[in-house]
Amino acid sequence: MAGKQASVLVQYIAVRGDLAEKWPMGAIIAQACHAATAVMHVFKDDPNTVQYLSDLDRMHKIILKVPNEGELNALVSVLESNNKDFKLWVEQPENYPTCLATKPYIKTEIQDYFKKFKLLK
Fold first, then answer.
1. Which of 39, 66, 71 is nearest to 53 (CA)?
2. Helix H segments across 1-121?
3. Are 48 and 12 within 8 A, CB to CB?
4. Domain segments of the chain: what residues?
5. Residue 84 DSSP SS3
6. Residues in contact with 111: Cβ distance below 8 Å, sequence separation at least 6, in sequence order
7. Which tens digits make up the pLDDT trace of 12-62?
8. CA angle in degrees (0–180, nearest 5) for 108-113-116
9. pTM
10. Torsion angles phi and psi, residue 31, rounded to 5
């Protein structure tokens, strides 16, 4: 079973916690959905995405809270510098980042970039 766990595909979604404290939960969920949908479209031909979408009943998403815009921007920089694919969702017309979603990755390849963040509650 350990081998199966090591190869599980996951999608991380990081939401700004400062917004989650002020906005209605429906608005936060909408932001996460926008980012998740957009990243799946952008990377629709990526082998991980194709595999992830081949078993819709077993998709695995991890929704985390990033404290604020500065921390979200820092996460963007880390992911970019490590060549990890994601979509930063920027709410319009306000033009500010609200969350990001990664394309599906094998959990062991991506989890370290997110380990300091807590689950969104």
1. 39
2. 2-6, 17-20, 25-42, 47-53, 69-81, 107-110
3. no
4. 2-119
5. coil
6. 10
7. 999 999 998 999 999 999 999 999 999 999 999 999 999 999 999 999 999
8. 110
9. 0.92
10. -60, -45
Q: Is the CB of residue 56 less than 8 Å from the CB of residue 119?
A: no
Write the class of the CATH domain 2-119: alpha beta
DSSP string, 16-42: EHHHHTTS-HHHHHHHHHHHHHHHHHH
In the structure encoding, which two tokens stand for residue 51, read together? Answer: 């595999």
48-62 per-position pLDDT tens digit: 999 999 999 999 999
The CA dihedral of 41, 42, 44, 46, to the nearest 10 degrees, is -160
C-beta of residue 9 within 8 angstroms of C-beta of residue 62: no
Cβ atoms of residues 63 and 15 within 8 Å: yes
* 66 contacts 115 by C-beta, under 8 angstroms: no
